[in-house]
C-alpha cells in the first residue's frame, strides 16, 4: 500500500501534464462546457490509473488515499490548465494541430 502523501504527489505530477494530453482529444470548435466535461472525465480516469499504477489494485480498498490521489489529479489538472497551459498557448495549439479540421484545411 502506498501512503496517501505518495499517491497525492504522484497524482499531482500526473495532473500537471493532463491538460496537454486532454488537448489532443479536444477540438477547438467544442463548447467550453463540453471541453470541461471531457477534461474532468479524463482527469478522473487518469486518477484511477494513477492509483492502480502506484499502489496496485488492492489500493482501491483504502478510501482516503484513493480519493485523495484522484482528487489531486483533477484539481491540479484544472489549475495547471487555467494557470499555465492555456495562457501559454500550448494547450490551444495542440487542440488546433490535432483537430481533424486542421488536417483537411492544410491539405
List the helices and strands and how they pair.
Blueprint: H1 4-25, H2 32-55, H3 63-88, H4 90-98, H5 100-106
Helix pairs in contact: 1-2, 1-3, 1-4, 2-3
Walkthrough of the structure:
The protein has 5 helices and no strands. The model has no long low-confidence stretch (mean pLDDT 89). It is 82% helix and 0% strand. It is an all-alpha fold and 107 residues long. The protein is elongated and about 45 Å long. The longest helix is centred in the last third of the chain and has 26 residues, at 63-88. The protein has one domain.
Brief synopsis:
The protein is mainly α.
- How is the biggest beta sheet arranged? none
Structural class: mainly alpha
Number of domains in the coordinates? 1
Distance linking N and C termini: 52 Å
Mean pLDDT metric: 89
Low-confidence stretches: none
Figure out the total of helices: 5
**How many strand segments?**
0
What portion of residues belong to β-strands?
under 5%
The run of helices and strands is HHHHH
Q: Specify the helix fraction band.
A: over 70%
Coarse shape: elongated
C-alpha Rg, in Å? 15 Å
Amino acid at each position: 500500500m502506498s501512503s496517501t502523501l505518495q499517491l497525492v504527489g504522484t497524482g499531482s505530477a500526473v495532473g500537471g501534464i493532463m491538460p496537454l494530453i486532454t488537448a489532443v482529444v479536444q477540438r477547438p470548435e467544442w463548447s467550453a462546457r463540453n471541453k470541461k466535461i471531457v477534461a474532468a472525465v479524463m482527469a478522473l480516469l487518469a486518477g484511477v490509473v494513477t492509483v492502480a499504477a502506484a499502489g496496485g489494485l488492492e489500493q482501491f480498498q483504502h478510501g482516503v488515499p484513493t480519493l485523495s490521489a484522484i482528487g489531486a489529479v483533477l484539481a491540479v489538472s484544472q489549475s495547471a490548465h487555467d494557470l499555465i497551459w492555456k495562457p501559454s498557448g500550448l494547450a490551444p495549439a495542440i487542440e488546433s494541430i490535432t483537430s481533424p479540421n486542421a488536417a483537411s484545411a492544410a491539405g
